[in-house]
Amino acid sequence: MSLSPAQLDRCAGVLLGLAAGDALGAGYEFAAPPPGEAEMIGGGLGGWDPGEWTDDTQMALCIAEETATGSLDALAVAERFLSWYRSGPADVGIQTRAVLSSAERATEVPVRAARYFESHPDNSAGNGSLMRTAPVALAHLGDDGALLASAMAVSSLTHADPLAGEACALWCIAIDRAVREGHLEGIFDGLALLPRARRSFWEERLEEARTGPPSRFTPNGFVVTALQAAISSIWSTPVPGDLPCRHLQDSLQTAVKVGNDTDTVAAIAGSLLGARWGSSALPVDWQLALHGWPGYRARDLVRLAVLSARGGEPDSSGWPSAPDLTEYYERTGPAEPFVHPLAEDPGVLLANIAGAAVTEADVVVSLCRMGPAQPPHSDRAEIWLLDSAEPADNPNLEFILLDLGRAISRWREEGKTVLVHCVQAESRTPAVAAAYLARRDGMSGIDALAAVKSQVPQARSNQVFEEALGRLARR
């Protein structure tokens, strides 16, 4: 289906939000909730590194690797599950381990799950299929029938209890509505799609979640309680009036503080929050920290999510599949490298795409779409920011500017050089540099932009960016 820039950002947010919640909750799993704000501290049951996602995201990536090809075959997903299990993951859920350890080939996986359900009829509706279900929604945006069928089929690979399948179906409908329609109430649409005999059960469970509090839903290894804990965390957390997308971070904090299976509850919540607020709602620090099996970073999750939503097809530039977009950018903009140390702080370098390819820095902030082969900086944040005059294309613009202004200030205090670039350094790069200057020197955003423009000959006006910078003084 055709997706607007904001909808595509929200698609990317599905997997990034899932991984962020997972990594945020990993260090507190079955331990005391943090007294203050949760952080990506690592540790936990798998001995995770800070920012590393757990088996929740790992299994979701098994599904996403399949959906990114443009198809979703349950047995192909089962084969990917088996390969993942045989790679020796640091942590595997009890029920998932029981099923995968007893299967030799993909066709045996759902059979083993069914047998597990038969032998454990009252104890086989764990949260292990709900935590990974998000990519199914991306593969079937706008097609409720296919979405429900796939959600239940993929759930039943390891969790044959119908409760698990229903939870996955409801959550995927919620993600679909968040991506396509931009709201967090879509789970109610899913009720009408369930068999009539099952609707009252879920209506009651959702009403319990709405009245909360989130702390009521623990322990949460049971799929129903896990869903309630996740959705209650989202619904009970106020949406900030000034920066609405902060709701993503605030709700994930709420989810972790529920306690018990913290990484899973936060991962489930994160997939829906990312679907609503987009990848651009994740702070740059989280995006830089995220990593995990099979050697992926945040950019890889964006790639898989976007391809899944686009039926496996890249856009006209080749993104997000092309390893290098240099040739495409050379056709659309100047090839001469431009690199300019900011006069007020030479440790901040402003560049176009050609200049970024030949310049080294401790941290690179890319404000345009990149291929994994360009440029070869390991500590690089890729920020979803469009050079557009339409406000709807960058719904989280003020948050992005504030977040990057704070991050660049901190990196400079740490003595790190920072390279900020976009394709031509015309509007996005000057706007982010201005946000940094405004924070550092106490200038208005407009005065800071004027100072940057005087140093960047190709800089041009973007009214949407200028209006956002003008509002920064109120923060």
Write up this protein.
It is a single chain. The protein has 475 residues and is mostly helical. It is 52% helix and 5% strand. The strands form two sheets. The chain has a five-stranded mixed β-sheet. A hairpin with a 2-residue loop joins β3 (339-342) and β4. 56% of the residues are buried. The mean pLDDT is 95.
Features:
single chain, 475 residues, mainly alpha, ADP-ribosylglycohydrolase fold, Protein-Tyrosine Phosphatase, Chain A, 2 domains, globular
Topology, element by element:
Layout: H1 5-26, H2 55-67, H3 74-86, H4 94-101, H5 109-119, H6 134-139, H7 144-155, H8 162-181, H9 187-191, H10 196-211, H11 223-236, H12 246-258, H13 262-277, H14 284-289, E1 291-292, E2 296-297, H15 298-309, H16 326-332, E3 339-342, E4 345-351, H17 353-357, E5 363-366, E6 380-382, H18 397-413, E7 418-421, H19 428-441, H20 445-453, H21 463-471
Parallel strand pairs: 4-7, 5-6, 5-7
Antiparallel strand pairs: 1-2, 3-4
Helix pairs in contact: 1-2, 1-8, 1-12, 1-13, 1-15, 2-3, 2-15, 4-5, 7-8, 8-13, 10-11, 11-12, 11-13, 12-13, 18-19, 19-20
Q: In this structure, how is the largest beta sheet organized?
A: 5 strands, mixed
Q: Total domains, how many? A: 2
What structural category do the secondary elements indicate? mainly alpha
Percent helix: 40-55%
Q: Which CATH C-level class of the largest domain is it?
A: Mainly Alpha
Q: Indicate the CATH topology of the largest domain.
A: ADP-ribosylglycohydrolase fold
Gap from first CA to last CA: 38 Å
Q: What order do the strands of the largest sheet run in, or round the barrel if closed?
A: 3-4-7-5-6
* Helix-strand topology string: HHHHHHHHHHHHHHEEHHEEHEEHEHHH
Strand runs, count: 7
